[in-house]
Amino acid sequence: MKTINTLTSICFLMLFFQFNAQIDGDNLFDSDQVVEIQLDFPQSDYWDQLVTNYENMDVAGSVYIPANLTIIDVTGTYTFDSVGIRLKGNSSYMHPGNKKSFKIDFNKYISGQNYDGLKKLNFSNGFKDPTFMREKIFMDIAREHGVPAPRVNYASVTYNGQAWGFYTMVEQIDDQFLDWRMLNDDGNLFKAGSNFSGGDGEANLMYYGTSQASYESSYELKSNEDANDWTDLIELIDFINNSSDIEFETELQNHLDLGPFLSSAALDNIFSNLDSYTQSARNYYIYHNLGMGKWQWIKWDANEAFGSYGFFGGANPSTLNIDYHSENRPLLERIFSNSNLMDQYTSEVCLLMNTIFNPEYLNPIIDDLKALIQDEVYADNNKMFSNNDFDQNIENDLGGGGPGGPPGGPIQGLKSFVQERYDYLTSVVDCEPFSSIHSLTDSDISIYPNPSDSYLLFKGINTYPASITIKDINGALIHTEQIYSDSQAIDVSSMASQLYFVQVEGQVMKLFVP
Description:
Largest sheet: 7 strands, mixed, barrel
Strand content: 15-25%
Shape: globular
Number of strands: 18
């Protein structure tokens, strides 16, 4: 019988309990559900106050008003006094009528008040998405592939007993998120700016010198605001723009958590999620994880995934090249122009095509979500699109941008876009160099910690001994080993920093070695 030493046993037990412990917010996000959100405002003119506060936000900052809240989820009914409410959004505020996106702050007026460990929640109104599924599907898949992204679910909302609408409920990117996802919340967290304000306004990672003022119209510091020290962000941007080609190739992984970023960029491309760094230079966070000494990319706002972002010159979103990007996107430009980094990125595109981005995988997910939300969508009399639009856009395109919406082309159908994009990608992307990477199969097997630069443990293996195979992005065999129990760790400390594929019992999983 194999044994492990005392230190390894302690480390395993710590990881086991951390892995199995409930994460803050699991009551809302651990299973697909439609949560009931009942807001009761004591103010007779609450709507006028919400609108006035939103319209004066640039001058007064984010101003909330109090309301009482009842949450009904799969675990029960919970009531809260005096939570903060404010309207939110940029283009989504153009949603016709009063169904605006909004934010709840549990501890705005009562210090320490939270629900299931969460301090804030976001509610998106389905602007430009007749299906209400784009953000949910995109963020779920991003997280499943090791890309930091908020959890997403659904909510039916009432204001003072009046049905207000069906919403997408989105996790806040804050210190709670950093704690459970990054295991560190001490570093600087920046949000890409709206690019609707003055100045340059694009969070494009272009270098504009050493002055912090040159970047303040493009990024928002969301942590350590009192220190207000942007030196680390400026140093990262300096490296991205001004390092030599050799330095960029060899040292990028020392500055940026590269594997998950390549996954993130590949997801934006294959889903044509272009209201992102790729095109609009918006809708992302970047976090300086002091524990790992690297920056991490965090997804945000994917309501226009599946090709429904219309502001990129009228090109067909189903036939974008895999190296597509807008001008002045130096991080993507330099990755795509480097053959080794481009190979890593292409291998990620191929892996996604072979696993999740195909009709066989995505169509059942779409059908299950339709069954979950259809009655709630139909009951929403304030939604931007009709019931027929909901049904049709799941299958096929809708012409135009929708009533009251901005200019733009057709809204791509979920299933039709997936089929057309998949057909195009398989016709133009050569995945033969990565053909030894097998597709993922349904399994309860998981690996942790991930990322890891020390050791690797497994959960959910059915039969021991189990053969473990690790390959690099080109399919070359890096390590093979048999393990005899779920407490046996594999040493990965000597493996180079990059993306790997771990195969066990016919399942292939991604491993990031930082």
